[in-house]
């Protein structure tokens, strides 16, 4: 495979450095054009090497989805991190430990109970910064922008000794709609939700310096972010088939794939068996509800060309079943046992999580193949 | 949580040692009653500590699904291993390296091309043992029991210098049917398929000392294994909701769970949000097609009691959404932020793979909590 070690052991995770760099550059230019700050989400890649490329400055700002991410990236020099999953009391010790080591780690919450716990922990070891989570699309957590609890929580935090830093939201619903107009509409829902909540906090005499929004589709489509101070996004670093299916990228932009080897055939069924099953690809079937169902992934040649209509139609733990998509006119290609292939993932976050390293196709054709470690856990 | 550290960081993977021991004992007694050998599959647990409990003798025999499993378990003393995924030429170097270190590692294949590659590698560094893979239910790989290629492959291996050791099959279809009678029928399909193939090899003057079958449901339900020399099974060590859904175990037998913490509520929607999303639970929805759809898992109290009708109805990367199952008469329980819960997985192999350690509830109530490492990769 071009740019990769010839004795590659499959399945393994492959990142195309040139495509990744183009994706990073595209998002950076988008955000700069909107005139707001950018806080990349590092949960997709979970890699210090890739964080160095996503963050213009390794000091941050950055977003994470687990405290282990915060710990690893703080150790690598990131000093401004938002942990963007609702905090629990039992995690505040790790938050304070990271803050004591010089990392400005902020948390999010959406209830008075959490706010009381954070205020109590702040009284002990210094003010913990908090964003109040706002719901903009009914998909997950957060308070409605007009909820009375926002002001209640604001007072608990501000008067209880925590650092009330602002509000944040995430339009997970933007993944369920297709096209720039629909994504722009979700971006406006994000903006309106947090700006409304921020205005209410300020009207109540409470501080709200940070107004944070974001998802990859809304970040790429937003037209006006008046009142917003920063955008968060993560999966854009690789993109994936789900993002391509909603028009946030082209299939050719996808920088992540799983390298796999043909291990057998069932010509009676039109199957080609490979050594990437769901343990490698993940069980994510995010394209199942889209206009084009890509099965467990779309198949490429080893050098990255799409094999027309060949998808992963089934997956066991260590076996993938390749077949032509239903209704395809093509004939299955000749792919003898031992043939190297690559598979584009439905969901980059889920597929990358199945591996502990990235095999890098270098952007510089003359460069040596690289392997970048990846971590998981909590 | 009883038997676990009070400062547990969630989500984390929990194993109930007493339930696991009972599952191991149940399977051992079943196989002994059938009068055949047992080759436990170590792919579910991927843990040296748990392999020590699954294998009556740490020397083996054992089954694995990746060469990394073979390497880790060989280093821990296992000396008789079947790598039960179709071999590719590029993996033969690692196979030979393990064999050179004293591990009797056998491979499987189902094509003349693979057989030629294995024979060629055997000529170089000593005979590699091979089982020919037989298909018994059309679910995955393998040759039909009456396929002419079986004899062709047998000759390539035997005369080419490999060690033709026998035949194997796996009735993945047994996971799709419910009840002991249906599982016993699949066990008989497994038996008949490999015994037919073995008889044909022997009639052609070829050796076939090993006749290997197995899956957890068929191993637990088989009534007669005449002609079979060994059974393989793996998921029985923990069991899971899929196995309970087809009647292979009771929900109370399930030894694996994910500990999680309540992080918020959406009373308007009847949701309880927890810090175990699909990154912790996996995307496996194996009960979706069963009589009782358990969502992404069934919720327990921290000490292991089922909370009636509370399941994980939705999952984001680090958020799980708990709600009553559709049509449930119960009212959602009061579970404040910070409450510890546990979630039984649909598929133990998939959920365990999301973690790098087991938090053990010791069988001995007075024992200290233990943490057993777990590995992944290929």
UniProtKB/TrEMBL annotation, chains A, B:
SMART domains noted in UniProt: D-ser_dehydrat
GO molecular function: D-serine ammonia-lyase activity
Gene3D superfamilies in alphabetical order: Alanine racemase, D-serine dehydratase-like domain
Domain D-serine dehydratase-like span(s) in chain numbering: 255-362
InterPro entries: Ala_racemase_N (IPR001608), D-amino_acid_metab_enzyme (IPR051466), D-ser_dehydrat-like_dom (IPR026956), D-ser_dehydrat-like_sf (IPR042208), PLP-binding_barrel (IPR029066)
Domain of life, source organism: Bacteria
Keywords from the UniProt entry: Lyase, Plasmid
Signal peptide range in chain numbering: none
Cited PANTHER family: D-SERINE DEHYDRATASE, ZGC:162816-RELATED
Assigned protein family: Belongs to the DSD1 family.
Protein name per the record: D-serine dehydratase
